[in-house]
Here is the input.
Amino acid sequence: MKFTKMHGLGNDFIFVDYFKTEIPDLDFSGLAIDLCDRNFGIGADGLVLVLASNAADARMRIFNPDGSEPEMCGNAIRCFAKYLYDRGLVLDNPLTVETLRGVLTLEMQVEGGLVESVKVDMGEPILKPEHIPTTGTGDMVLNYPLIVDGKEFFVTAVSMGNPHCITFVENASAVNLKEIGPKVETHDFFPRNTNVEFVQVVDRGHVMMRVWERGAGPTLACGTGACATAVACVLNDKTNRKVKVTVPGGDLFIEWGEDNHVHMTGPATEVFTGEITLF
Here is the structure.
């Protein structure tokens, strides 16, 4: 199997191309578990399939390292746009990509014929508790006291097509992600589990974020998480509607527009190509 390794701010993915060929009858969930293993496989935060689409320029499917299939991934979709454009598979700019979140529009910054960064219209945030989903009630889950292992965390829940739980802390680097992340991810309050973000506010235009991703664990960046964080910041009056979100892998620039759409801008990088024998 031929593959391409790509990353967005260190959030890395294995790309497999079926854009012009028929998709084989494979267990992609099991394949993702094997290929994403950093000791016995290629190593990655996810497996991405490049597919043709009847609804957009192309279709993206992504599988987490545990085999689950999330609705969306913000860093992967930027890499997806670069993969398509740099290979001449799709030269429209902006281009459209079909995901389980819906069809998204991506605008690319091109230098020397190659994509350097991508601005993604991530659509409107979902705030209704039952649609995120959570077991909460009312108009939204805002600064809600969530009890985890006897400790109280004040959380805000936002979905960007996939669920996020945001907690504001004084020092994001001091949070023990590996201890608390999986407990929040699988909390009964989130029927389909959740991504977990811990956010430190620097000023009204800048925050720092660390993330425990549903199905993946700690990652260097999470695009949908950065978008959900920006929305949570505005809802809690922590920042303006334009904000730089610093993650361990670098910076993402998020804007929650007056049209209620969230726009994310960040880099996409191709690392190498290769071929692996299937297990």
